[in-house]
Amino acid sequence: MVRYVYDFTEGGRDMADLLGGKGSNLAEMTRLGLPVPPGFTLTTEACRAFLETGSEPAGLWREVSAHLAALEASAGRSLGQPDDPLLLSVRSGAKFSMPGMMETILDIGLNDDSVLGLAKVSGSERFAWDSYRRLVQMFGSTVMGVDSSRFEQSLALLKELRGVQDDVRLPASDLAELVETFKNLIHLETGDHFPQSPAEQLRRAVMAVFESWNGERARVYRRREHIADDLGTAVNVQRMVFGNLGSDSGSGVAFTRDPATGRPGLYGDYLPDAQGEDVVAGIRNTVPLAELERLDATSYDGLRTHMRTLERHYRDLCDIEFTIERGTLWMLQTRVGKRTAEAAFVLAAALADEGLITPDEALDRVSGEGLARLMFPRFDTDSTGTALAHGVPASPGAAVGAAVFDSAQAVRRAAAGEKVVLVRQETTPDDLPGMIAAQAVLTSRGGKTSHAAVVARGMGKVCVCGAEELTVDTEARRFTAADGTVIREGTIVSVDGSAGAVYAGPVPLVDSAVIRYLEDGSGDGGSQYVVDAVARALARADTVRRLEVRANADTPEDAERARRFGAQGIGLCRTEHMFLGERRELVEQMILAGTDAEREKALADLLPLQRQDFVAILEAMDGLPVTIRLLDPPLHEFLPDPTELAVRIASAQARGEDPDAHDAELLSAVNRMHEENPMLGLRGVRLGLVVPGLVAMQVQAIGEAVGERLLAGGTPKAEIMVPLVGDVRELRLVREEVQRVLAEVSRAAGVALDCPVGTMIELPRAALTAGRIAEEAEFFSFGTNDLTQTTWGFSRDDVEAEFFSAYLDKGVFSTSPFETLDREGVGRLVGIAVAEGRAVRPDLKIGVCGEHGGDPDSVHFFHTAGLDYVSCSPFRVPVARLEAGRAAL
Ligand code: PEP
Ligand code: MG
């Protein structure tokens, strides 16, 4: 018999799959003996069953009724009891937090009768009618589908009529009138009445929360956060406690440490005489939590004690929501808090120091993605000039973009390739698409725990909120700073999420403190604590990881940087990049050579240049392996564009002149070499087999460079890699040539040359015949860019294609397979090639040098697949080191 409902006393934090994050944590707090209003949770399984069939699963309501009866018995009153009503909140709570994305309905149990009872027992008519007003409004929009702005408009109208700014100033009679207006509005819009039966209210509220799982904003959020669509949400039904019962009541949100920096201290916002929703919505400006100490020292002390309990129990930063009802403190929610990348590193190190977590746990608490964020440049504080305004530094980083004032505009401009900053008074869940599209979010209202701050932090997006000196006029699409500066839509602004400042115009960027540390080990006064925390995480990762990390580099500068960033060699040196610039002409001569002699001349001219390149790179990576790949791309990439040539020739003719003979010759060669699908054409190993002398020249350059380095007392470790092999015979032919040339160079230079020869595995056929290929290969390196292209049949040069975003939208995949390795398909080929390659040659060295080598999720896969190393761009090297360490935990 499936069970759909659990009392808070029955659950625990390890039940998040079933009870959702909020439900499992409420249960955990209940078990810890913290003051949690009693309640129960309907499971995610109930939600899934409801969403699948469109109706309530059998037996669900029987269980709910039994739990409700128990709740009523313990409270000594019943739901909506006319003289003293028990009131309930109904809140969503999925396994992964989706702040504000689903529905909440409060004050369930109020109706035309019980509102009078509530007025009597609470001693406040105003409070009772305000609660009823809130219920009708929330129920009307969430459950009955009336546009929420209709209610807002009525409320605003009444406030205007009465000449008041704040809801708090409306007397009970006005609120009672508003309830009538709202009820009429519901009837008018839906033809249905607001239900007076408390039981019906509860039932319909629960179903509405289930349904909100599939609401538009929830779906957008899940896609962005890669949360599966089939998890469903739990629903928490809990006794209401009230923060809006006067000045001895209030609601707040708090963090056990600063979620922006990770530093110790009690952070949060408090709003006297308000419900929790008012705090998060940023509708009224909150006061800092420290103020609570002055307002209600007993509750403040209680809160601090509970927060210490929670942090020690969860062994992590927690965020909490609390309410004080007439001097009694209630804990309404806790969870392991979202934090910035910086805070993640700082916290992990601090908690390890405090002995709350082990060094391995500390490593597991940080991420490569977070590290990458800390490596982004920041604003050059010497050239920022005067800020337009300061606000709360809610989510760090530096962003420059055009100011836009609504979500739709942000999405539109970003889609057209523009960088934008979304400016709002405060954000709501409806702004989510715009927040995703923007570089930064700027609000004039709300604190560190406002919607804008929480969501931006979760997404790693730059955010400054509560910049109160700014007047944001979304209608007129502009904001005005205190000094009178007006910023209109489209004007560039710079947002410093670390300092909480906003500037007009673009502010120049400088390297981050972490980059400077990686570059030369230098410290940084202000952010030394971040640098230290990052250094510790990397050191731990280096201790535990099994995967080596190499870099893709084809210049000595890149090689040196990669080495400073911790690379243990070069996994891919693309020689084609050495054929560009002024050398292009030589390549052109080689391609166009009419005779062997001409070609040999061109190759002979290229030889010393190539040798020089290799000497410099081998020197930069002295003692570490350098995998040099033979020329790969289609040759026509080195020739001029045929359209340009044709235009040049045609305009010469139009002027009555003879076209340049060289141009005509070039054009016919380019046309001769034209391929419809060059990426599947004459490239890779195929070039080596059909262009005489090419492999020999490159290998001679490598051999001579190694010889030169040896004679100079170095320890060069060149490896020669053959690209785009599909069959062992291709590799065998090239390898014979390589060995012949190496033997010649060795004889001529009088040095022994030991250069392993291996191949890329970047075609499905290579993966499927890896056992055969391993007979000729001393190492494999997966070229997962081409392997993804050829496995899926997606052109890697057209990944921005329209259909890719459709695929992402329709959920065919949640990230591009060119970014994160497709484990199921491409990963399977990798698995086959590793197994079959090693079966033939047990000591086969295997790595990867496609872009996936620097992608965190893919690094974990390569660890599990048993690779020896990953190779990625120099800037991703620290990320790969960190993730390789985490993969080994
Ligand atoms: C690859 O295909 O993954 C690879 C590393 O080679 P390239 O990107 O140069 O084709
Ligand atoms: Mg390739």
From TrEMBL:
The cofactor(s) it depends on are: Mg(2+)
Which EC numbers characterise this protein's activity in its record? 2.7.9.1
Where is each Pyruvate phosphate dikinase AMP/ATP-binding domain found? 63-285, 295-343
In this protein, which residues make up the domain named PEP-utilising enzyme C-terminal?
A: 535-885
Annotated keywords: ATP-binding, Kinase, Magnesium, Metal-binding, Nucleotide-binding, Pyruvate, Transferase
Protein's UniProt keywords contain Protein transport: no
Q: What class of enzyme is it?
A: transferase
SUPFAM superfamilies reported for this sequence: Glutathione synthetase ATP-binding domain-like, Phosphoenolpyruvate/pyruvate domain, Phosphohistidine domain
Which reaction is recorded as catalysed by this protein? pyruvate + phosphate + ATP = phosphoenolpyruvate + AMP + diphosphate + H(+)
Q: Which domain of life is it from?
A: Bacteria
Family of this protein? Belongs to the PEP-utilizing enzyme family.
Give the protein name, as stated in the record. Answer: Pyruvate, phosphate dikinase
Q: Which organism is it from?
A: Streptomyces levis
Q: What is the lineage of its organism?
A: Bacteria, Bacillati, Actinomycetota, Actinomycetes, Kitasatosporales
Gene name in the database record: ppdK_2
